[in-house]
Amino acid sequence: MLSKALTLFGLLATVLVATPFASAAVVIPQHVQPVRHGEAIGITPHDKYSSSVGVLGCKIDINRVAYWPSSVSCNDICVRVTSTATGRSVTLLKIDQSGGAHDISYDAYAYLQNGIGAASPVVGGAVDATYEFVDPEECRGLVHTPDGNLPANSMNFVDSCKNVGDNFQLWNIADARCQWGEDVMCNFPDLAVTNQPDCGEGHTLGIQTGLLEGGLSVVDVAYPV
Asked: Which of 29, 105, 166, 187 is the most buried (most CB within 10 A)?
C-alpha cells in the first residue's frame, strides 16, 4: 500500500510550486510496480544532480541517487544495488528518470568498485550489478530534513501520490538544485479547494530569492577527466 510504503520512515514528498500543477519530466504510474529481486543491470556513473520529480538536492544525500529509465514511482523509491564483482552494496533514492542508462551517483559507482568512493577516483563504463527495491526505511539516512520527510517540488508527483497527500511537507524552494526560493516550510493545500501552499504570514509563495549564500547549494562530485 502506498501510504504504508512511504510512511515507514516518513518518506513523504515536500512540494512547492507557484503555478497550478507544474509539469514534471515523468509520468507517474497509477499502479503499484512489482518488487523485483536481484535483476541484472549495467550501472554507469552520473556526476550532476537532477530529479525529474523535483526532489530538493540540498536536503538529501546526492551521492546516493539512482537515475534510471523507468518512471519514478511513489512505491519503488528506495533501491539496493549490488556489484556482481565485489559484492558491495549501496542503497539509493530512485528519484530521477534517465534517457536509457542505469546511472547512479558517481560516488556510489566508485564505492561499489573500490570500497572507498570518489575520494579514490574510478573511471570506466558499465559495471555489472543487480538491484532490488527495498523498504523505504533503508533510505531514511539519505534524507536530511528535520523530520525525515522527502523534499520535492513537483505537483504532478504529489497528485499521483495524493492518497498520502495529507502527510506531505512543503518548502518554499523553487528548483531541485536549491538555487532559488526561501528555506521555509509551508502547509500542504486542500487540492479540492486550491493548489497553492500556505507558507505563512510574511512569506511569498514562489519567491525567487537566491539561496546559494544560505548554505543550501548542491555540490556535485565530478567524474575524473
From this structure: 105
Measured distance CA(137)–CA(103) in Å, rounded: 22
Q: Does residue 24 form part of some domain?
A: no
> Is 67 domain-assigned?
yes
Ramachandran bin of 153, using left for φ above 0, alpha for ψ from -120 to 50, beta for the remaining angles: alpha
Residue 25 belongs to a domain = no
Residue 163's SS3 state is: helix
Average pLDDT over residues 197-210: 86
pLDDT at 176 over 60: yes
**Separation CA 165–CA 152 (nearest Å):** 13
pLDDT in tens, 7-19: 334 444 444 443 3
Q: Is the pLDDT of residue 70 over 50?
A: yes
Pairwise CA distance, residues 51 & 19, whole Å: 19
Q: Burial, 174: exposed, middle or buried (Cβ in 10 Å; 0-12, 13-18, 19+)? A: buried
Per the domain annotation, does 75 fall within a domain? yes
CATH number at residue 87: 2.40.40.10
Nearest to 75 by CA among 17, 33, 103, 122: 33
Q: What's the domain count of the chain? A: 1
Q: What pLDDT is attached to residue 114?
A: 97
Average pLDDT of the chain, as a whole number: 80
What's the domain range around 48? Answer: 30-52+61-141
Instruction: Quote the CA–CA distance of 71 and 195 in Å, as a whole number.
Output: 24
